[in-house]
Known about the structure:
Strand content: 5-15%
Shape: globular
Largest sheet: 3 strands, mixed
Radius of gyration: 25 Å
Low-confidence stretches: 1-5, 42-49
Helix content: 40-55%
Mean pLDDT: 90
Number of domains: 2
Strand order of the largest sheet: 5-6-7
Structural class: mainly alpha
Distance between the termini: 65 Å
Amino acid sequence: MCLFSNSRLVGDLSRKIMVPTHLLRKIVISKQKSILLVCWLSFFASCSFANENLHSGFDSLLRKHVITIDNGASTQVDYAGFMRDKPLLDDYLSELTKVEQTTFDSWSDNHQLAFLINAYNAHTIALILTEYPDITSIRDLGSFFSSPWKKEIAPLLGEIRTLDDIEHNLIRGDNKYQEPRIHFAVNCASIGCPALREESYTGEKLETQLQGQTERFLADKTRNYVLDDTLYLSKIFSWYGDDFEQGWQGAHSVKAFIGLYSDALGLSEMQANKLISGDMSISFNEYDWRLNDITQ
């Protein structure tokens, strides 16, 4: 490209091939732009591939050790299987530590969010394995003075982080991503929690994955259902109610958010109308903190 950007050389070439200089210069500039475009696209394609490839090891582990139950409504985790493959999980966590903040900042929001969700879920599994099989709930890993979510266990983006830090600061903090559906993607290793997905999250598929997780969770009648004129919801909607009131898809309340998924909930037209009009009350179910292990 440097050869053809030199005016003298372009002129010499013009005389040799008998093409007007101004026309040749246009051709050369057009070629240069095409080459630059191809290089630019190739660069971002390679970055995208590298990002997705980062999670391939975790993806394989999830596909192997996460079991679909209840006709797809939820999943259970084979923690004994994860224990056997712990070196592979450790390898993945080690790869996550190599991602620098500047690299992370260069990614799209979807790629960043996929990275953070995967990191949260992988570190949660690793935390469970520190005491497995002598554990019946993730809360067993805490004490009266500290919770398991406040343990500094996750080297990530240049700091040693807690699970709370990943979820509440990196994922939810400052409403950067404006994405309430993350609550159906991060998994707290409990039966009451939305299903741990049987694959890793990726920037390319994140929208489809989050939508699928939301519909799956709301369709699970053990967690969310209508009885008479009362909508019984997971405690998640109580704990994080503010996240569902930020205007996502025009929803400024929990009821409005739920109304977007009336089909997943199996609401009749009359029930959906009652929900939207405010004529349906909401009650929150108790949370099941038992470990989401296949032995449960």
